[in-house]
Amino acid sequence: MFEPDDAKLKKIHEDYRSGALLSGEMKALLIERVNSFLKRHQEARERAKDTLHAFLADH
């Protein structure tokens, strides 16, 4: 969901398991991905509101 590239995901996993990637760095990666997801979701929600309001106004 947050990392579609399996090769990148495997590298993150290996780096974290080996200690090359620390917990704080892992959290920063996740925060970046979650914020990006939420931004897209909020934009889609706003577009859906416009569509819903237009639909309800017509009926």
UniProtKB/TrEMBL annotation:
GO cellular component: a single term: cytoplasm
Organism: mine drainage metagenome
Gene3D superfamilies membership: Tyrosyl-Transfer RNA Synthetase
Full protein name: Tryptophanyl-tRNA synthetase
Any one GO molecular-function label of the UniProt entry: tryptophan-tRNA ligase activity
Key word Ligase present: yes
One GO term (biological process): tryptophanyl-tRNA aminoacylation
UniProt keyword terms in alphabetical order: Aminoacyl-tRNA synthetase, Ligase
